[in-house]
């Protein structure tokens, strides 16, 4: 009701000013200034307010307006008990509900005894590109209305207060997000739809639960903490504030778990980039621009994501012939690459993504690549400066086992630890396999049976490794010296 009345009065005032613009040209100059004063007085009498609008997207910008987002948060917190029509969003596994104002609802705020009216509005624009179906684009904005005489207070104090509060609310209620990129073709013309979709990031992995050599862990922790506190340092040395990590190691050694632990340590969002869904280098750049600061951009299994060298392509073609003898991990990589054939992203596009000019937009970002095959990557991709730190995640050592025993069974020592320590030195087993034996599978299962299961797995792995070594040696002997 209030909103409608104000809109009507506003239209009358706007109509009056429109008429004045047309007719003022006919009046002689000496009368015009005189009459104009009266016209303004009538307008102020009919509509003694000013309107200020804040659009979600300004002009051609691809980035959502920060002011709009801050106002949205401010109004969500301050309006939910005053507005009579609200929109609900459910967070944290259906445990908390956030209410925000619905479209065309007016909420009144008070500031230094001044009344401010806020309205949330939406316009629908229709695009009809040539040879394509019509696309409706929603343009949202907030409208602030206040009495004309309070203009300066609103401009100099109230808006500062709203933006500041909006920022503070964002810090208080920040929920970290895990983003994935939408397929390029699903983002149509004139569509403001983000290139990323997200869910709330709630992975429980931390550096405390990560099983690895404690000395190596400390070095990584130190590196991450130093990075996050080095804003001024990066500015001083003229480098954009980002750092590249290359995680490599066999499957199940904790590469993905480490990325989650990094995000939890630094409270960053994660952008999990699926290169096969990116059409070309231009789309790759757009994706980069849409990532926020304080984030980790991840490309998993980088060796499977791109045709990195012609040499490797040739090798893969050779491998196709003897499918039987192929390593299962290599086979997985080949299958992945087959899947990615639709993408035209090139190695140089990816190098530019990592440290080209556009990579300097935004700040405080980690870029993390993971691979099972370090030696298959192009050196241009892994050189220092691009990938600043190479981290090898390897098979389970005794120190790493102790972390898993503490996590999974709350166990710090046991008489079977000695046997396990000896077996771990003699065989290669991944932390994922160790975890599988230690995880409780029934309420009756006790610590001892878990440890005995692990000992059996270790003995089995040791025997398998011995048999494989014997087989390899026999094959080498049969092939004779010319095979080298
Ligand atoms: N270092 C580790 N510390 C703790 N848990 C681990 C570790 N490595 C593996 N795990 C356990 O094994 C599971 C698989 O690990 P993860 O996905 O991190 O391996 P990965 O190295 O990313 O494997 P892939 O190369 O196949 O992607 C995890 O969910 C975790 O429970
Ligand atoms: Mg992984």
Automatic annotation (TrEMBL):
SMART domains with a match to the protein in the record: AAA
One Pfam family linked to the record: AAA_lid_At3g28540
Catalytic activity line of the entry: ATP + H2O = ADP + phosphate + H(+)
UniProt organism field: Lactuca saligna
Name of the protein in question: AAA+ ATPase domain-containing protein
PANTHER family: BCS1 AAA-TYPE ATPASE (PTHR23070)
Cofactor: Mg(2+)
Domain of life: Eukaryota
Residue ranges of every copy of the AAA+ ATPase domain listed in the record: 241-397
Keyword check for Ribonucleoprotein: no
Protein family (similarity comment): Belongs to the AAA ATPase family. BCS1 subfamily.
Keywords tagged on the record: ATP-binding, Hydrolase, Magnesium, Nucleotide-binding
Gene3D superfamilies: 6.10.280.40, P-loop containing nucleotide triphosphate hydrolases (3.40.50.300)
């Amino acid at each position: 009701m209030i909103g409608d009345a104000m809109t009507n009065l506003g239209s009358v005032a706007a109509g009056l000013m429109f008429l004045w613009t047309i007719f003022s040209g006919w009046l002689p100059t000496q009368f015009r200034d005189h009459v104009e004063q009266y016209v303004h007085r009538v307008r102020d009498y009919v509509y003694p307010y000013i309107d200020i609008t804040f659009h979600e997207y300004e002009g051609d910008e691809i980035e959502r307006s920060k002011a709009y987002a801050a106002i949205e948060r401010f109004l969500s917190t301050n309006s939910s008990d005053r507005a009579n029509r609200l929109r609900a969003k459910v967070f944290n596994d259906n445990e908390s509900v956030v209410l925000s104002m619905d479209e065309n609802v007016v909420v009144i705020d008070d500031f230094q005894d001044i009344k401010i009216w806020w309205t949330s509005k939406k316009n629908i624009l229709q695009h009809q590109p040539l040879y394509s179906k019509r696309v409706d684009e929603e343009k949202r904005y907030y409208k602030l209305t206040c009495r004309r005489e309070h203009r300066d207070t609103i401009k100099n104090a109230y808006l500062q207060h709203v933006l500041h509060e909006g920022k503070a609310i964002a810090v208080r209620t920040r929920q970290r997000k895990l983003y994935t990129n939408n397929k390029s073709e699903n983002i149509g013309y004139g569509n403001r739809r983000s290139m990323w979709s997200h869910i709330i990031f709630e992975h429980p992995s931390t550096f405390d639960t990560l099983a690895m050599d404690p000395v190596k862990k400390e070095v990584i922790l130190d590196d991450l903490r130093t990075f996050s506190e080095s804003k001024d340092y990066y500015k001083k040395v003229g480098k954009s504030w980002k750092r590249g990590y290359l995680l490599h190691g066999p499957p199940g050694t904790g590469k993905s778990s480490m990325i989650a632990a990094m995000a939890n340590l630094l409270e960053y969002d994660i952008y999990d980039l699926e290169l096969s869904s990116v059409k070309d280098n231009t789309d790759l750049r757009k994706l980069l621009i849409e990532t926020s600061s304080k984030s980790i951009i991840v490309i998993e299994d980088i060796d499977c994501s791109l045709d990195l060298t012609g040499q490797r392509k040739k090798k893969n073609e050779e491998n196709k012939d003897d499918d039987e003898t192929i390593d299962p991990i290599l086979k997985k990589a080949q299958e992945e690459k087959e899947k990615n054939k639709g993408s035209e992203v090139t190695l140089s596009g990816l190098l530019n993504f990592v440290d080209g000019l556009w990579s300097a937009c935004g700040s405080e970002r980690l870029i993390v690549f993971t691979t099972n095959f370090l030696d298959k990557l192009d050196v241009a991709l892994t050189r220092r400066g691009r990938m600043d730190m190479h981290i090898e995640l390897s098979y389970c050592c005794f120190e790493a086992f102790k972390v898993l025993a503490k996590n999974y069974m709350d166990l710090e020592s046991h008489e079977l630890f000695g046997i396990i320590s000896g077996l771990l030195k003699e065989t290669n087993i991944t932390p994922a396999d160790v975890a599988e034996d230690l995880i409780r599978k029934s309420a009756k299962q006790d610590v001892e049976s878990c440890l005995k299961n692990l000992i059996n797995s270790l003995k089995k792995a040791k025997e398998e490794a011995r048999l494989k070594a014997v087989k390899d040696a026999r094959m080498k002997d049969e092939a004779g010296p010319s095979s080298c």
